[in-house]
Structure prediction request, 369 residues.
Amino acid sequence: MKLKIQKEEIQNVLQSIQGIVDKKTTMPILGHFLLKVDKTAASLMATDLDIALKGPLKAEIIEPGSLCIPARKLFEIAREVEGDILIESQENNWLRVTSGKSTFKLMGLPEADFPALPEVKKSEELIISAEKIGTMIEKTVYATGESDTRYTLNGLLFHFTPNKKNVEFKMVGTDGHRLSLIAMNLDGKLSEEKKIILPKKAALELKKLIEGSSEDVTIYMDKNHIFFGINGIVLTSRLIEGTYPNYDQVIPKNNEKNVIVDKMEFLKALRRTSIMSREKTNAVRFDLEEGKITLISMNPDIGEAREEIAAQYKGEQMTVGFNARYLMDILQAMEKESVNIELQEPLSPTLVLEDNNRDYLCVVMPMRT
Prediction:
């Protein structure tokens, strides 16, 4: 195997797999990527056994061949050298890397050691723009859990419902204390409703892969895997097995008290008052009165903070407590200038919307004050 690659090309491609190759594994092969070169094209594959990426590599091919190459080390070499890179396999799985006056030798592994990747099943496909699915992930992934016991919450629910003309796609994240949901329609057809759980790591790798792209993403699914295709690259992820909670039951339908606030003013006030809250709970108390909200945080060991902001509110006086971190995560994911907060009782689920946009909604559970 012998090929010449531009520094920027190999650097960008290796950057895209750094989150997938497993650096702390007991299986050394998972710290490698497989480089396959035939007479006309080069491709690479990387996997941690749960997520896999396969994509093309632009190169000047001199001799075909294949080798598993240490991903981190070659990335560090590509980042530091200043010219094009010549990669050449040698006897006993050794690799020679040359750039300018620099020469490196790396110990590789044979192709036979690399795990087999699941085959893409192209029975039914759905299409969504990279920008849209990136936005959906950004607006939901922060709400996912990190629990050892409720492992189904450690991912995003993808809920596909076929309609006559298209497919309704809902993406949901929750950790049991808060929930985020966004919905939109996709091109394509499905024979039946599908609910799958995508691991959080896979969602973040997908978001990183499509960053800044204006291309379409094609989605395929089988019983245990989901495949995302874009620009000749395929990202595969194993799905989380189990049943996701009924998210629809959590969303309050008849909250009568409505508060409208300026998003940035609210976010800045939360940041300031939460400075004095207890680190474990991040608790901030909200005193609602006509035309204003008073934010209060108290910590007996340090002191307290208090701030008043204007709000459109005409209901009775009410006191409710929230984890400030949860509200700040929601506000940072919202784009509009104002947000609606819909409440009922001090301890009942609270709904947060941006400008009454019901296609994107967040639910947060209050705390005792």
